[in-house]
């Protein structure tokens, strides 16, 4: 079984809490990611996702060039300890209704796991069930 440390993104992508939503969306596009960890005072305090941007800002007509990411970020960041299994991560995401988990090692964030990471993992380990005629 592959460990979470082998599946997670180790190069953590962050954004400052006072960045505008528009700058945050641009950063996600440039980094080709669906979420960024939010930093305040050198500490990770939240996460902001594409879903946060759409549901909490765009849908209500926020001024994306002026409003700060701290207005839409999700806190606290849902997390899972690094020794847990991919199945544990899957279950936790389903239970919490989230698509990203911070991976922690003794409480410190060391990586980020996305639902896409789990999809790739489960595709690799499952037997093919769908066949073409």
Number of domains: 1
In the CATH scheme, the class would be: Alpha Beta
**Which sheet architecture does the biggest sheet show?**
3 strands, mixed
Oligomer: single chain
Q: How would you explain this protein's 3D organization?
A:
- This protein has 133 residues and is of the alpha/beta class.
- The chain has one domain (4-125): CBS-domain, CATH 3.10.580.
- It has helices at residues 4-7, 21-31, 50-57, 86-96, 115-125; strands at 14-16, 35-40, 43-49, 79-81, 100-105, 108-114.
- The chain has a 3-stranded mixed beta sheet with strand order 1-2-3.
- It starts with a helix and ends in an 8-residue tail after the last helix.
Topology, pairings included?
Blueprint: H1 4-7, E1 14-16, H2 21-31, E2 35-40, E3 43-49, H3 50-57, E4 79-81, H4 86-96, E5 100-105, E6 108-114, H5 115-125
Parallel strand pairs: 1-2, 4-5
Antiparallel strand pairs: 2-3, 5-6
Summarize the structure.
This protein is α/β, with parallel strands linked by helices and 133 residues long.
Spell out the key features of this protein.
133 residues; alpha/beta; CBS-domain; three-stranded mixed sheet; 5 helices; globular
């Amino acid at each position: 079984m592959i460990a979470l440390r082998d599946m997670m993104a180790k190069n953590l992508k962050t954004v400052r809490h006072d960045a505008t939503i528009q700058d945050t969306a641009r950063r996600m596009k440039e980094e080709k990611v669906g979420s960024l960890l939010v930093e305040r005072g050198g500490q990770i305090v939240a996460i902001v996702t594409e879903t946060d941007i759409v549901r909490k800002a765009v849908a209500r007509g926020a001024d994306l060039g002026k409003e700060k990411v701290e207005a839409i970020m999700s806190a606290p960041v849902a997390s899972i300890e690094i020794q847990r299994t991919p199945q544990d991560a899957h279950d936790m995401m389903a239970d919490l209704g989230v698509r990203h988990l911070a991976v922690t090692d003794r409480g410190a964030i060391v990586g980020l796991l996305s639902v896409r990471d789990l999809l790739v993992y489960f595709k690799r380990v499952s037997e093919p069930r769908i066949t073409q005629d």
